[in-house]
Specification:
InterPro entries: ZN622/Rei1/Reh1_Znf-C2H2 (IPR041661), ZNF277 (IPR040048), Znf_C2H2_sf (IPR036236), Znf_C2H2_type (IPR013087). By secondary structure, this protein is of the alpha+beta class. 35% of the residues lie in helices and 11% in strands.
């Protein structure tokens, strides 16, 4: 098996390394030891091993394209570098199994590191290129031949004709041909489920084929479940998810525009000390330059969790979310402590920014479609705990998020005397020990 050459700098992330051709049995070595795992079957075991043995967590691991090549790249890097050189370091007062221990060190590998972001982006583009090439082939290839999933009809020619037959004759909605890719593999997956008497949508198993067909007809289950992530690879739109590194995503659009307009005339090489460090009682003409200073009586702008509405009062913002989104912030978070609400807010911010439903994680093309879906499905919520209760959501998703600053003023925040410490490289905070169990039962890799 070929390995990428170790990198010594930032630019190495974009190089043309030896490319793994992922198969159903790809051997991947642990990032730090000699243990080997066979992907994709041992994926969860490998990630669990990294967490339990090496205290390493990979952020948004389900979003990494070509995970095998991603792990191979970092395995080469960590042969000559320590985790601290690339990862965010955390200190928690407990072991991976939840046992209490003082100042245990953990590592978070995420795309806030430019090298990691560029690697993820390159792998995503590689997957996109391969998917587009395959998609073009499937749209024009006329050598396709396959027997129908439900009847004995054999369809020869284009794959689109086969999909049209499934819909017109059997009302099975798989997807539009122009939006699907790897159609052969998708059809094989559906055929396997039907042979095992498994419903395509709810995936319940039935005793015989007539019962299964009657169930799918009555329940309207003649379609695939869009909430099942294993079907994501068959929809072309999922290969074009663009994301920016964390430090870029955290910058609000209004602040970027403000800096673009007011910061173009500044010369980085020359600093005006009279302008930036003038005494408050001086007659300086640059008083307006201190307009962004937040005094004791000033409050940051509070942005709605689900739309672009801004308010200056927390109570007004909560009324807006109730009236516009039918979401009661106090009721939804009444059982959560301060630090859990911090993670909830950062999780919701990320989902909305990435145009993904907070509740079912569906991806949309624009904000209007996302809002319409969440309103129709009543998905304006905080999702299941397993979605947001992760260490990565301790970090603010938006820079200077005013909503995080007013959480102390909200109700239902009973501070526990039994707390543990989280120590980052530059930050020190307290968290509730019982709520932050990093055991495999609560922390899902």
């Amino acid at each position: 098996m070929e390995h990428a050459k170790p990198s010594s700098g930032h630019d190495e992330a974009t190089r043309k390394s030896s490319v793994i051709k992922p198969t159903r049995n790809t051997a991947i070595k642990c990032l730090k030891c000699d243990k080997v795992y066979i992907f994709p079957a041992d994926k969860d075991d490998c990630l669990a091993h990294l967490y339990l043995e090496h205290r390493l967590v990979i952020a948004d691991v389900d979003e990494v394209a070509l995970l095998e090549e991603y792990l191979q790249y970092w395995e080469q890097e960590f042969q000559t570098h320590e985790f601290e050189q690339y990862c965010t370091t955390l200190f928690l007062d407990q072991l991976p199994d939840g046992t209490y221990a003082k100042n245990e060190k953990y590592y978070l590998l995420c795309d806030i590191l430019p090298q990691d972001y560029e690697l993820r982006h390159r792998l995503q583009q590689q997957c996109l290129s391969a998917a587009l090439q395959r998609h073009q082939f499937e749209l024009t290839d006329r050598s396709f031949s396959k027997e129908c999933l439900f009847c004995r009809t054999v369809i020869n020619g284009l794959r689109s004709e086969y999909l049209d037959h499934l819909f017109e004759k059997h009302f099975l909605l798989v997807g539009k041909p122009e939006k699907l890719v790897y159609v052969d593999e998708l059809l094989e997956r559906l055929e396997t489920n039907l042979e095992k008497l498994i419903c395509l949508y709810c995936e319940k198993t039935f005793k015989d084929r007539p019962t299964l067909k009657e169930h799918m007809r009555k329940k309207g289950h003649k379609r695939i479940n869009p909430n099942r992530r294993e079907y994501d690879k068959y929809f072309l739109i999922n290969y074009n998810r663009t994301s920016a590194p964390t430090n870029r995503k955290q910058q609000p659009q209004k602040q970027r525009q403000k800096r673009q307009t007011s910061g173009t005339e500044q010369d980085d090489a020359s600093v005006d000390f009279d302008k930036h460090f003038a005494r408050p009682d001086s007659d300086c003409e640059h008083d307006s330059d201190w307009s962004d200073w937040a005094g004791d009586g000033d409050f940051p702008t509070l942005k709605c969790l689900y739309c672009s509405q801004d308010e200056t009062q927390f109570s007004t913002l909560k009324e807006h979310m109730v009236q516009s989104h039918r979401f009661d912030f106090d009721a939804a978070t009444s059982a959560l402590n301060f630090y859990q609400r911090v993670k909830v807010i950062n999780y919701v911010r990320r989902q909305i920014c990435m145009l993904r439903c907070v509740r079912c994680d569906l991806q949309f093309d624009d904000e209007e479609l996302l809002s319409e879906h969440m309103a129709q499905e009543a998905h304006y919520s905080i999702a299941e705990r397993s979605s947001w209760d992760k260490p990565e959501f301790f970090f603010p998703y938006l820079e200077n998020d005013g909503l995080l600053c007013v959480l102390d003023d909200s109700t239902g925040d009973d501070v526990s005397t039994d707390v543990v410490r989280i120590i980052s490289e530059d930050n020190l905070a307290n968290i509730n020990k019982d709520a932050e169990r990093l055991s495999l039962e609560n922390f899902k890799l």
